[in-house]
UniProtKB/TrEMBL annotation:
InterPro entries assigned: Fumarase/histidase_N, Fumarate_lyase_CS, Fumarate_lyase_fam, Fumarate_lyase_N, L-Aspartase-like, PurB_bact, PurB_C
UniProt keywords, alphabetically: Lyase, Purine biosynthesis
Cell membrane listed as a keyword: no
Superkingdom to which the source organism belongs: Bacteria
Gene3D superfamilies: Fumarase/aspartase (C-terminal domain), Fumarase/aspartase (Central domain), Fumarase/aspartase (N-terminal domain)
Name used for this protein in its record: Adenylosuccinate lyase
Name of the top EC class for this enzyme: lyase
Length: 459
């Protein structure tokens, strides 16, 4: 059997690339290396801005040329780094050599020894990862999550009055509205989004074991903790001053746990919508040219929600692995985090793919209100709750002598269907006040959704 031409191993880089490609700008190896170059260049500028070691601030023209090293980072730099790393067998060292090489070509070789000055690789890496993850989340992943949440809010408002039968434990229960039920998911996601917005993105920049030892040896009169804090904060990141060789990754653990939490809510949404489709509550809008089954022409399968469900499970597993692995580093440093962090993009990629499918899927369904009403009309027994609660109120008010209203309704309705006329006859024979009796006689399953419509206002 002949070998295939080189193929992407991951479906994220093949079949689904179009849905997740934006993440590659940040969470790919090239995106990471671009951020590393950015950190190296900005650190060099920070040192010269303070005229350390006999330097002077770089001119505006040269500053622009230096920043172009990462702003215009592209195919040439990617190829250069690949070749250099094949020799150095060290990715961050290859980045340092790239910056030194470009300094020579820019006529700035006098600054070469300030490249990677007093840095350990993890000073560069922790900062680069914080930048790339922050940008990927803020510019790509969170906007998509917000879009899905906004779509849910819109559906909740649209269907706020669409009464439907609840199913607690899968059994007929007190009616609600479809809008309120969808609104539950929007509310849950908004809460997690607020937590994500409040999350920190931290970096360290304190040398080989977090002590600024080399910095102090080179220049003992500089307040290095304050200088490095100022540098990290100038990049839009938080500073972690108490670390080993690595930044401890706790902010990442928090982020991935929250992303997994959001994914769990979305997974619940996907399975519920799938179930509502199977009950006929939602009809699926045919997509022109699409095929649901290779042998059954009539089928429209809920593939958007099934795809989302599967990808959310994959993402959850990866997020959980990232969080559980990154929380630990043996003594001052081990390399387990290096390999683990290279899968950050894979985790967010599967999550983003799920969000894309949910966004599309929510536009391809239509509420079948006639089915909802028919379902309600065959389950009048759900009014048993209302009847026994009204009877209790009447007893408390001294307008009834009934001794056990719950048992009375249980005998009438448990495990059996009760129609509207039968319930009406039952209510007419109850020992309760006339006003209460009239309220119950006017009640139908479709009208027994309480304040469900008002709950949607909470969104």
């Amino acid at each position: 059997m002949s070998a295939l031409p080189p193929q992407p191993l991951s479906p994220l880089d093949g079949r689904y690339f179009g849905a997740v490609s934006e993440l590659g700008d940040y969470l790919s190896e090239a995106g990471l290396n671009r951020a590393r170059v950015e950190v190296e260049v900005e650190w060099l500028l920070a040192l010269t801005d303070r005229s350390l070691f006999g330097t002077s601030p770089v001119s505006d023209a040269d500053r622009a040329k230096l920043r172009a090293l990462y702003e215009e980072f592209g195919a040439d730099e990617i190829a250069w780094l690949k070749d250099k790393e094949a020799v150095t067998r060290h990715d961050v060292k290859a980045v340092e050599y790239l910056v030194r090489d470009r300094l020579d070509s820019l006529g700035l070789s006098a600054l070469a020894e300030l490249t990677h000055f007093a840095c350990t690789s993890e000073d560069i890496n922790s900062t680069a990862y914080a930048l790339t993850v922050q940008r990927a989340v803020d510019r790509v992943w969170l906007p998509k999550l917000r879009t899905v949440t906004a779509a849910l809010t819109e559906l909740a408002v649209q269907h706020r009055d669409a009464a439907m039968l609840s199913r607690t434990h899968g059994q007929p229960a007190t009616p609600t509205t479809m809008g309120k039920e969808i609104g539950v998911f929007a509310w849950r996601l908004e809460r997690v989004i607020r937590q994500l917005d409040a999350g920190e993105y931290l970096a360290k920049f304190s040398g080989a074991t977090g002590t600024w030892s080399a910095h102090v040896a080179a220049e003992p009169d500089v307040d290095w903790p304050e200088l490095t804090r100022s540098f990290i904060e100038s990049l839009g990141l938080g500073f972690n001053p108490v670390t080993t060789q690595i930044e401890s990754h706790d902010w990442q653990v928090e982020l991935y746990d929250r992303a997994r939490h959001a994914g769990g809510i979305l997974h619940n949404l996907a399975t519920d919508i799938w179930t509502y489709i199977s009950l006929g509550y939602f009809t699926q809008i045919p997509v022109a040219g699409a095929t649901g089954s290779s042998t059954m022409p009539h089928k429209i399968n809920p593939i958007r929600f099934e795809n989302a469900e599967a990808n959310l499970e994959i993402a959850a597993g990866l997020f959980a692995t990232l969080a559980s692995t990154l929380v630990t580093s043996r003594m001052q440093r081990d390399l387990t985090d290096s390999t683990t962090q290279r899968n950050i993009g894979v985790a967010f990629g599967h999550s983003l793919l799920a969000l894309d499918n949910l966004q599309r899927g929510l536009t391809e369904i239509s509420l079948a209100e006639d089915v909802l009403l028919a379902d309600l009309d065959t389950n009048w027994e759900v009014l048993a709750e209302a009847i026994q609660t009204v009877v209790r109120a009447e007893i408390a008010a001294g307008r009834s002598q009934i001794t056990d209203p719950y048992a009375l309704l249980k005998d009438l309705t448990r495990g059996r269907r009760v129609g509207g006329p039968e319930l009406a006859d039952f209510v007419r024979g109850l020992d309760i006040g006339d006003a209460a009796k009239e309220r119950l006689l006017a009640l139908t399953p479709a009208a027994y959704a309480g304040l469900a419509s008002r709950v949607v206002d909470s969104l």
